[in-house]
């Protein structure tokens, strides 16, 4: 038998899968219940509505996102800009759909805003990039550019073609390594 925490995690993982398939507006609690093999009442026992479920999903994915960045940093030699480069690499993989966080992370963050609960990852990322050993203004510009790439994907607001996105991300990596060379 699953513990309460395991049940909640299973529901959130099911919601994340459904969100990736259907998108934010077409996902319902009924569909989440079906995906998770729970009754709708079983879902609403833990999450009173879709917004609350999205807030919890955002919290779970925030932690996962930060851990992926920290794991990337730990795998490489620490140097000026290494945290920002890891952020760029993890975000690039995510935007390619390799990690599955994109829509759920941003949609969940939007729901968090409704609930008055800011996404922890934004604060953690900002703190790390500005303390990464080079110009904090340039680091913030890089973070904001990455945020913009996510929002363009989420809202289908003219997301960049793959080749151009790759070039933009490569330029951002270059900026962090140029800062290291100085």
From TrEMBL:
UniProt keyword annotations, A-Z: DNA-binding
Residue ranges of the annotated DNA-binding region, renumbered to this chain: 28-47
UniProt cross-references to SUPFAM superfamilies, sorted A to Z: Homeodomain-like, Tetracyclin repressor-like, C-terminal domain
Domain HTH tetR-type: 5-65
GO MF entries: DNA binding
Xref: InterPro entries: Homeodomain-like_sf (IPR009057), HTH_TetR (IPR001647), Tet_transcr_reg_TetR-rel_C_sf (IPR036271), TetR_CgmR_C (IPR041479)
Gene3D superfamilies for the chain: Tetracycline Repressor, domain 2 (1.10.357.10)
Domain of life of the native organism: Bacteria
Extent of the signal sequence: none
Pfam families membership: TetR_C_28, TetR_N
Protein name from the UniProt record: TetR/AcrR family transcriptional regulator
Species per Swiss-Prot/TrEMBL record: Vagococcus coleopterorum
């Amino acid at each position: 038998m699953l513990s309460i925490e395991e049940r909640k995690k299973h529901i959130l993982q099911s919601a994340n899968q459904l969100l990736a398939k259907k998108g934010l507006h077409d996902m319902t609690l009924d569909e989440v219940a079906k995906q998770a093999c729970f009754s709708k009442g079983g879902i609403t026992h833990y999450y009173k509505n879709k917004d609350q479920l999205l807030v919890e999903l955002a919290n779970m994915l925030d932690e996962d996102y930060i851990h992926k960045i920290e794991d990337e940093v730990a795998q490489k030699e620490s140097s000026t800009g290494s945290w920002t480069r890891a952020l760029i690499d993890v975000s690039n993989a995510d935007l390619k759909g390799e990690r599955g966080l994109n829509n759920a992370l941003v949609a969940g963050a939007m729901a968090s805003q409704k609930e008055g609960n800011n996404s922890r990852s934004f604060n953690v990322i900002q703190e790390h990039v500005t303390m990464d050993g080079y110009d904090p203004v340039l680091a913030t510009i890089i973070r904001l550019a990455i945020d913009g790439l996510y929002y363009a994907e989420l809202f289908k607001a003219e997301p960049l073609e793959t080749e151009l996105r790759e070039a933009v991300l490569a330029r951002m990596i270059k900026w962090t390594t140029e800062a290291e060379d100085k």
